[in-house]
Amino acid sequence: MKALVIEDERKIIDAIRVAFEFRWPDAEIVDSTTGKKGIDLVKSEAPDIVILDLNLPDISGYEVLKALRQFSAVPVIILTVRSDDEDMLKGLEYGADDYITKPFNYMNLLARIRAVLRRTETIPFQGGHDKTVNPRLTIDFVNQKVKVDNRPVTLAPMEYHLLALLVRNKDQVIPYDRIMDEVWGKGYEDNNENIRIVVRRLREKLGDDPPNMIVNRRGAGYMFKG
Question: Most Cβ neighbours (<10 Å): which of 63, 76, 111, 173?
């Protein structure tokens, strides 16, 4: 497993590296103290996960995240110095998979990383590779590839897992708490706003406007209409 840390404070990078050496010794750590170099490293190093600080000296973490999502679905955990919901929600809107507030426990960070990486694992699905979900949507559940109107669509891991969960349970309302458990992982506080943001991103990428595929049942949850 290779992790890229994009963080301008060298002491934080060093502490993350020590935490990995202690609990995850076979992991490879690559780092950058600037956003632009971090973007280049995603292209050249192909990390399995990115830990991204929002406050960087050259460009903001949001700009880095926006740039990454133009060419990569690599999982991203953002680091923020504020517990402001606005920061966290904005990060999710730009395509982050999780967030953690400074100062943080480094063992907790490793636990978050493991949880995010679990979400990138292939979801078993009976019936082979490609499945035509509806006339517009095709999903390769083995390779986690999605096509809309026969065009490839790049989804972040969280977006893909939410879509797969809904499609596997087509025409059934999936409660908010189950979505949190299966997409974010058990132990996360239920947050319907987080779910709403990921649903909105997913609808945009699927061209589901007005919503005909992913439908909200207010007060209950979401469903994929077949």
Answer: 76
